[in-house]
Design goal:
Strand content: under 5%
CATH architecture: Up-down Bundle
Largest sheet: none
CATH class: Mainly Alpha
Order of helices and strands: HHHHH
Helix content: 55-70%
Mean pLDDT: 82
Number of helices: 5
Radius of gyration: 21 Å
Number of strands: 0
Distance between the termini: 73 Å
Low-confidence stretches: none
Structural class: mainly alpha
Amino acid sequence: MFTTRRGLLVGAAVLAAAGCTREPAKIITSDADLTAALRTARSLAQGAEALGFSDIAEDHLTHAATLERLLRPASIGEEATEAPADVAALAEAEAAGSREAADACLATDSDYAVLLGEIAAARAAHAAVLA
């Protein structure tokens, strides 16, 4: 029986993929770092939108949507927060949110350190733009 090189390579790739898959994805029931990041993202989005910074608000809403997907099926209720009164207060809230996400990034044992780091960087950039 003659086997082509292509058939052999495809067969080897299929066998390797079948045997080398990672463990199945787990549903997160609770993660304090992700929950805190979600609440802060919602709050910052609300504050940015109230002050007319729709681009910044959209960044926070994108982060919030990602965090909500990761935290499903757990639902994290939205809390009523007071919007910052001015741009300086929003800049300070962005800086505090950045520090919170950076601390969570450095302290986490989960696979979400990169996500938390990206959120921290985005919030730091927003604070710099607003300052």
